[in-house]
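A quick aside before the break. I want you to see a complete sequence-to-structure record at least once, exactly as it would be stored in a machine-readable document. Don't worry about memorizing anything.
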Amino acid sequence: MSILMPAHRKIDVHMKRLLETNDIASIMPSKNIRLCEVQAGGPDKIGCIPRDCWNFIDDRRRFRIGVGDAEVIRKFFARLQHRDRNLFHLIDIDDEGRLRNVLWINPRSRAAYEYFNDVVSFDTTYLVNRYEMSFGAFVGVNHLNRFY
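That is the input. The structure line, written in C-alpha cells, reads:
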C-alpha cells in the first residue's frame, strides 16, 4: 500500500534506461511498462505505479531532439540574423539531420570579448554516465587567464 504514496514511488536508473530505450525502439508505452513489470517480477515490484512510467516516457519524448528540430533551430537563428546582421551562428547536423552542436555569438558578447577577452563555454552531456544524469558545465577564462 505504501507504493501508492508519492514519497515512496521511484523509478530506478535501470528501469528509466529500459523505458527510454524501448520508447526509442517504438514499443508502445503500455507494452513497455508491462515489459518492465515482467522483468521486475510483477507490478508490485517495480517501485512505482504505471502512471509514473507514462509520465517519465512523456517527459523524455518532449525533450528528445528529433529529425525536424535542427531545421527549426536553423530557421530561428536565420530570423535573428535577419534582425541583427552582426549575429554569428554555426549549426552542426549529423548524417540523419539531427542537431549535434550549436554556436552563436551575439554582438554584445563580441564587444565584451574585444574589451575583456573573456570566454565562457557551456557544455552539456546527456546519458553518458551510469546514473543517467544530465550534466552541464560552464567553463570560462578571463582576461587574466584565470579559469572559472
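Two observations worth writing down. DSSP finds five helices and four strands in the chain. The first strand starts at residue 88 and ends at 93. We'll return to this after the break.
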